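Quick one:
INPUT:
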């Protein structure tokens, strides 16, 4: 056995967080947060920094939240504790959450994750102490982010603060296949200081007896790495074993078939032996103790959540007294999870995983079953159950799918929760003949935003992956999904002087990916004509002239700027603007439009027919210029720090108070006569931490908005920062898996 000192660091995870008319026309020229922990091999303590995760207010006086869209991403695990109303949830790319029963909202426990550590927003496993539900353990890491690093997080205060331990020899992937399995963490029900952790692509298993301060590497006597990189997929502890201080019997499942895949230890992990009667033709999804000496196990023929053979799987009951199995499968197919009434082990509810049958919404998703006789007979609920969108209207036509995890409330055993690819759902009468499921993920915002527009005097409009995008009256109010529901969108724009006209782009290589609306999103029209002779155009960036008469598109597969003055019936290739990746329109003069590539900035004064390259501005890789609403010809550009132009991009002046600017946005000024507020993601000086900053004097001075407890994993895929054009002191930023984060200046409220 190998012993190793854990490296620890208290990590934050606090809550986080685009454009109003502006006045003023001056050119505005003027002259990370947490420690990086090395791998666990060194065994040296890196120090402790306390960072509260659940505070919504930064030390700089900004209050953070997430734009209310309605779930949108895969919640990979949900958990109910013995404490009334205390629930936890984990997501694949959006960190972990704790439910606040007073506000009836889920609150992020991952706001403090830095941009460098954004891979830790992928939570591969979560567990809490049954004796001490304030003790929370998480395994976090994402294979393709932050160098694939894996860390164990431990909290003693319900996830308000965390101790972080990096594990250099082990790997998990919170967004990998099998992420809905579990749990790979198990806390001894008699001693919350004892925790077992299993790993995915690296395989392996560790045990800590001091609350995660040190650990021992366990030897299961077999290779736990798997061809599907899912490793150890579930661990469960027999609560009736051992003595009064700790349990001795542990079961661990390995994500494989065709060989032994469940192992048992009766000496607290020192030695292991295979459970020989365990089915070898299926893969374990989850294991649950039934309170009566048995473990109920769900199976599929792959790790899930969406790659399994839907007709292969089942549910088995393992008798821990003799390690024999009983088949209690309702119907041969893939199953995600099961919950058991802690007061009656004969009452169970089960869900399938990746099965697509009709649900009450008309959409297709998983099946739900209940039994009251220990699995001898089951009742299918899909024909009788109902669904309540719970105020998020667009969800009324979606389904509960990828149902990999369920939880039953021990304080109200009529109540269960189930995860889905688009959030969390609950049911308060699961044993009734006609149970009602309802959306239960308010506060969990896991959409991936790509663009946002705050319309002066109007709506907040977004483009997003998977769900198209949303239109809503404000950040706090659930809105409506764009009626086109055309899938993933990469860009959206609104005509500044004719705000009934919006354009958007996205899609894939199957169909042309440009849409427009002339009635503020009530109806959308697809431009059937592709600007490319080689096939459909898709993705990229869009713009629309201030008067709404000319559309612009730089498809991701096109390499050029295209324009249309007949609503997409025909397209014309602009001269110049080679390899432009982003296009924006002047917010006042419809003749002017601007484009940017990774190396050049272009401007046009003839509605995009011809572009001229700015010969003096070195752009490098930044492609996000911003045109100022209400001010003709004024553009901010994050290049060599921050640049500003007041002559339609012909010349730029560097704002020397900014050392590093990755994104820039503008927002409503304090008064109608004030210039726009400026927002950046970057650094005023090289000594400042990378983060959110704002200026009320056109860049002469800057103040930090966020702090080390509110970093949100950086700006993610969307890479934008915008101010609100209707509310002074509000900023929006994109994120990796927290949707659109917004911050409000507290003193402005």
């Amino acid at each position: 056995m190998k012993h190793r000192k854990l490296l620890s660091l208290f990590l934050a995870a606090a809550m986080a967080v685009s454009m109003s008319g502006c006045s003023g026309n001056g050119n505005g020229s003027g002259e990370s947060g947490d420690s990086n922990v090395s791998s666990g091999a060194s065994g040296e303590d890196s120090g402790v920094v306390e960072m509260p995760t659940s505070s919504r207010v930064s030390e700089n006086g900004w209050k953070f939240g997430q734009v209310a869209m309605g779930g949108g991403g895969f919640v990979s695990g949900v958990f109910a504790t013995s404490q009334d109303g205390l629930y936890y949830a984990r997501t694949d790319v959006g960190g972990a959450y704790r439910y606040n029963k007073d506000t009836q909202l889920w609150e992020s426990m991952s706001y403090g994750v830095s941009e460098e550590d954004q891979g830790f927003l992928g939570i591969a496993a979560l567990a809490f102490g049954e004796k001490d539900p304030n003790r929370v353990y998480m395994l976090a890491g994402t294979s393709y982010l932050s160098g694939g690093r894996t860390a164990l997080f431990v909290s003693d205060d319900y996830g308000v603060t965390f101790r972080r331990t990096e594990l250099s020899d082990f790997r998990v992937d919170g967004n990998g296949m099998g992420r809905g399995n579990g749990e790979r963490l198990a806390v001894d029900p008699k001693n919350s200081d004892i925790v077992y952790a299993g790993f995915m692509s690296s395989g392996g298993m560790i045990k800590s007896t001091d609350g995660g301060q040190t650990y021992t590497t366990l030897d299961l006597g077999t290779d736990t790495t798997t061809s599907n990189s899912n490793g150890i997929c579930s661990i469960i502890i027999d609560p009736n074993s051992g003595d009064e201080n700790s349990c001795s019997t542990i079961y661990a499942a390995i994500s494989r078939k065709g060989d032994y895949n469940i192992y048992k230890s009766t000496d607290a992990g020192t030695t292991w032996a295979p459970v020989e009667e365990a089915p070898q033709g299926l893969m374990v999804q989850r294991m649950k103790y039934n309170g009566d000496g048995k473990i109920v196990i769900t199976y599929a023929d792959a790790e899930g959540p969406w790659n399994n053979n839907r007709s292969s799987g089942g549910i088995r009951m393992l008798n821990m007294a003799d390690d024999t199995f009983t088949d209690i499968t309702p119907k041969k197919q893939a199953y995600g999870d099961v919950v058991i009434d802690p007061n009656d082990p004969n009452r169970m509810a089960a869900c399938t995983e990746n099965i697509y049958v009709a649900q009450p919404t008309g959409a297709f998703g998983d099946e739900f079953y209940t039994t009251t006789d220990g699995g001898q007979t089951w009742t299918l609920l899909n024909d009788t159950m109902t669904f309540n969108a719970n105020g998020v209207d667009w969800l009324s036509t979606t389904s509960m799918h990828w149902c990999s995890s369920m939880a039953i409330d021990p304080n109200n055993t009529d109540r269960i929760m189930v995860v889905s690819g688009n959030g969390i759902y609950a049911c308060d009468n699961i044993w009734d003949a006609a149970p009602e499921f309802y959306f239960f993920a308010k506060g969990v915002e896991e959409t991936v935003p790509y663009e946002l527009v705050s319309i002066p005097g109007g709506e907040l409009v977004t483009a997003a992956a998977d769900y198209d995008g949303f239109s809503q009256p404000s950040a706090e109010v659930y809105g409506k999904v764009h009626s086109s529901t055309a899938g993933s969108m990469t860009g959206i724009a609104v005509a500044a002087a004719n705000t009934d006209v919006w354009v958007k782009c996205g899609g894939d290589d199957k169909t042309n990916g440009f849409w427009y609306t002339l009635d503020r999103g009530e109806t959308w029209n697809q431009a059937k004509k592709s600007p490319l002779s080689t096939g459909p155009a898709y993705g990229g960036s869009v713009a629309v002239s201030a008067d709404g008469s000319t559309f612009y598109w730089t498809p991701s597969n096109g390499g050029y700027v295209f324009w249309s003055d007949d609503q997409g019936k025909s397209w014309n290739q602009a001269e110049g603007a080679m390899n432009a990746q982003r296009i924006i329109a002047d917010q006042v003069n419809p003749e002017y439009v601007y484009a940017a590539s990774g190396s050049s900035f272009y401007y046009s004064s003839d509605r995009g027919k011809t572009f001229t390259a700015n010969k003096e501005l070195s752009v490098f890789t930044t492609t996000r210029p911003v045109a100022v609403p209400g001010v003709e010809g004024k553009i901010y550009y994050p290049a060599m720090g921050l640049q500003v132009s007041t002559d339609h991009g012909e010349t730029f002046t560097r704002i020397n108070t900014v050392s590093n600017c990755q994104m820039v946005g503008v927002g409503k000024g304090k008064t109608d006569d004030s210039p726009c507020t400026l927002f950046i993601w970057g650094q005023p000086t090289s000594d400042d931490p990378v983060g959110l900053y704002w200026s009320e004097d056109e860049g002469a001075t800057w103040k930090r908005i966020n702090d080390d407890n509110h970093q949100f994993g950086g700006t993610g895929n969307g890479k934008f920062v915008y101010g609100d054009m209707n509310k002074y002191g509000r900023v929006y930023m994109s994120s990796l898996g927290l949707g659109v984060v917004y911050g409000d200046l507290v003193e402005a409220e």
